[in-house]
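Morning!

This is the sequence you dropped in the shared folder:
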Amino acid sequence: MNIQELQKLKERAQRHLALRGARKKYRVVFSMGTAAIAAGARTVMATALDELEKRGIDHVEVVVSGEMGLCVQEPVVRVEDKRGETVTYAKVTPAAARQIVAEHLEGDKIVVGLAVGKVKESPEGK
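The structure's back. Tokens below.
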């Protein structure tokens, strides 16, 4: 990716960012550490953003983070919902990103074949 493409990606991501006080149905965290970028995380995020726009999904907050500690599993995408459940997807390809948007973010169903972990926050943690 060149500078212009990165700027366009940044602008599209910013359109999907929620205001800090707002609470969307889902928060999607894209790992963008060195290993993630080398494994294609930029393309995965761009694909997911395209799919969100194409489907008119606006109940998703998009966030970028550093390494999530799963370097050999990159690109990693974490989906958090407002109930406290977190699902981690690993080795996400552009096709898998489209599937996550369609099935999880739009259809409210975990993509079982891609998920590597699921955590529900305890009531004390809220």
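Headline: The mean pLDDT is 85.

More detail when I'm at my desk.
O.
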